[in-house]
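Hi support team,

I'm filing this because I wasn't sure whether my run with flavin mononucleotide finished correctly. The job status page said complete, but I'd like someone to confirm that the output block is well-formed before I use it downstream. Pasting the exact inputs I used:
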Amino acid sequence: MDPRKKERMERMDGTVIRELAEKSRSCRGYAPTEVKKETLTKLTDCARLCPSGGNLQALRYKLSWESETNDRVLKATRWGAALPERHLPDPGKGARAYIVICLDTAAAAEATPAMYCDVGIAAQTICLAAAEKGLASLMIMNFSREGVANALSIDGRFRPLLVIALGVSAEKTALEERKEGMPPYWRDENDVHHVPKWPLEKVII
Ligand SMILES: Cc1cc2nc3c(=O)[nH]c(=O)nc-3n(C[C@H](O)[C@H](O)[C@H](O)COP(=O)(O)O)c2cc1C
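And here is everything the job wrote out:
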């Protein structure tokens, strides 16, 4: 079969999204490879097309791709709270870019549950699009709102709701089948990051 036709069929089948979802593991250690502003712009272009409750579209995006601002954002975020002894990321392994998803308070004074759904949809779209470009990512909610706003000189009108770290992965990850009593994630003696997921038969009710 014509490889392009095969690719199109696979896309219709959802295979591409399944593969990207599997590949798109949270990454807490990045290689020094820079991420260009243009790449962040393209990822944001995917996010702006996402569904939005009532099509209110109250989200705005602040981009960071320079080492100076990246370092400032990193200081305002907390990575891997379930592994406090690891102090992730290791020195020099912070993200090479960030996209901060913000609420435009001129469009909505408070973030409603629907808006938090918008945030999740936009964030996962950015992360899957990044995975398609060979970039790893990490969604971060454990951050200082003030710290991130100051780091990127974000106008007070825009309230940071979620930070997405981006870059080329310098980590090894392993997907596991989740069993009762397992921790949310763990590292083995070779620093491989293990992520357990419930099997399909458990999650379909
Ligand atoms: C809404 C949300 C907020 C998160 N916040 C953080 C965070 O603040 N710091 C962090 O290290 N990881 C954070 N994560 C990453 C989760 O820990 C990660 O998704 C989980 O361990 C499963 O790993 P996986 O993404 O590879 O499937 C967040 C993930 C989501 C979806």
